[in-house]
Amino acid sequence: MHWLVIGFGNDLAGDDGFGIAVAEQIKKRAASDLAIQITTEVISTRILAPELLESISIADAVIFIDASAALNDGRPQEIDLQSLIGSELEYGSSIFLSHHCNPLALMQLNHTLYNRNPPAWLYALGSCHFGLFENLSDTVAALVPEVAAQIIDKINKHTFCEQA
Amino acid sequence: MSKIITIDPVTRIEGHSKITIHLDDQGEVEEALFHVTQLRGFEKFAEGRPFHEMPSLMARICGICPVSHLVASAKACDMLMSVRIPPTAVKLRRIINLAQIAQSHALSFFYLSSPDLLLGMDSNPATRNIVGVARANPELARNGVHLRALGQEIIEILGGKKIHPGWVVPGGVSHALTAENRDYILKKLPEAIQIAERTIKWFSAELEKFSEEIAVFANFPGLFMSLIGNHDQLETYDGRLRLADDQGLVVADLPAEDYKTIVAEAINPHSYLKSPYYKPQGYPAGLYRVGPLARLHLAKTCGTPRADQALTEFKKLDHKSAFHYHLARLIEILYAFEMIEQLLSDDMILDSHVRAHAAANAHEGFGISEAPRGTLMHHYKIDDNGLITYADLIIATGHNSLAMNKGITQAAKHYIKNDKLTDGILNRIEAVIRTFDPCLSCSTHAVGQMALDIQLIDMGGTVLDRVKR
């Protein structure tokens, strides 16, 4: 099973760098964890762009990690995107601007263009500080290892169950 | 009573702008103006910084074409250091610049303009976007994704990251190419070349559907400017600067660093975008165009077999029409991947000597290269300590400023016949701008939905008509 983990956000905008920080943590773990190393591709990126479809279209499962100003909850939320992917492909620039888009739009496009509908989750965090600074706030920084561990557990559990 | 129609913002371009259409007392279009509504200020805040910081600092001007600024800036710094950079470094810089051109052109054609070209200028604006293209022609959308992804991947392999790589430095590049990376890129190129060829064939056959747009999308006589190779071949990194008219008559041909002898810049109160013009003809008569249309108009050959075949057909088209920027872009994608293949096949490409080292040895440096949208010029002056005292940047989009204004005026006069506006008319006027693919500020991304609100207002401020999207 091939997993794709995409952490995204602007690491120059305070807690918006949460997704990138978690992705980097998983990359570090992969260096010493052969199971993760073999099964998982980890991407850190400032924005989600359609070019990611090249990686998404060959993944068996996809996990996105983001900090969102639209959410109020300061605890990480796990959102099942697959349940939404089957819905009618959404039109309109709100999901797809000229060169960046959101996780659901990418998964929907993956379905439309490559006829694939793998399981996908979004780990999203709200109540963040998006100022012009490079570090995460203490509260959000403390959540990075926790969310990285959750994601690694999920990958291992699914991989293990599949093999069993 | 005169009136003004405003299109704000212009959508599916890189950056933020608006268009105003001015009507005369009879309700006829008098002129249309393209307003760039954002100010970047890089020329000022470069002052006082060490010159060797310029390439990475200037790359931050843009998130779509940072490599173009990196290359032009590094070339200006080479001149400040008075060094001749190693030949392999020149080839590697050429490759990353070509990858930049390919990925940017793919973005422009497949993501931004294909909705108009595939679905039609009058199609429903709610579905006239990349998602609509994915539904109507998944193969076209997949091809666009693939070409852009490959261009970006080559940039990442060479430069360490897709956006804002710092690999191109004063004196050359920071590290050599490995055999493993060369072989990896070479394996990927044949498929990209095939896709580019197929798309050229498809779009060439579509052109007859756009005869009206070809006739009125910035279709007027004028000059074209680009770098040109020693054998009059397409050139994106070095060469001489040439200007010729639409009939191919050369009016200027000079070393690129002497550009100031023929190019001056005017400032308009309606826009932050400067308007360069050809000095001997004055302002605004000295209007000229740059970019893929100009490059292919001026070049006698591309220097790669498949692109040369496409160029032969392209030469038969009316280059006065900005609509043909689209096909020119596709041909340059093909050229870029073919030329990258040629450069990577050179045994010297793995040479480890890729950087010349020196301190500042001159007080003034120019760097000129061809960016996706046209000729890009960086000009710096430094003091005895190597600190920048003056920076002047002429960005490709700026060169096209006068042509874009004249182009939207032509289209507005053709399509707007009374006080009533339709989305199709407004989309065509925006589409004129899109043919030039202006990059106004890619590093400032829009957040949320880009609304379109066009109002027709009379002199007393009364809104006569309004279209919202």
Description:
The complex is a heterodimer of chains A (164) and B (469). Chain A is of the alpha/beta class. Chain A has a single domain, classed as HybD-like (Rossmann fold), CATH 3.40.50. In chain A, 41% of the residues lie in helices and 18% in strands. A 5-stranded mixed sheet of chain A has the order 2-1-3-5-4. The longest helix of chain A is centred in the last third of the chain and has 26 residues, at 138-163. Chain A is globular, with a radius of gyration of 15 Å. The two termini of chain A are 13 Å apart. The model of chain A is unreliable at 91-95 (pLDDT under 50). With 469 residues, chain B is of the alpha+beta class. The two termini of chain B are 27 Å apart. Chain B has 2 domains: 3-38 and 408-468, no CATH class; 42-357 and 392-399, Orthogonal Bundle (Cytochrome-c3 Hydrogenase, chain B). In chain B, strand 13 and strand 14 form a beta hairpin. Chain B has a 5-stranded antiparallel sheet with strand order 3-2-1-15-16. In chain B, strands 8-7-6-11 form a 4-stranded mixed sheet. Chain B has helices at residues 42-45, 54-59, 66-81, 87-119, 130-136, 138-159, 179-206, 211-216, 292-298, 305-314, 325-344, 396-399, 401-415, 423-436, and strands spanning 3-8, 17-23, 29-36, 168-169, 172-173, 223-228, 240-245, 250-255, 263-266, 275-278, 288-289, 364-371, 374-382, 388-394, 453-457, 463-468. Chain B is globular, with a radius of gyration of 22 Å. Classes of the chains: A alpha/beta (164), B alpha+beta (469).
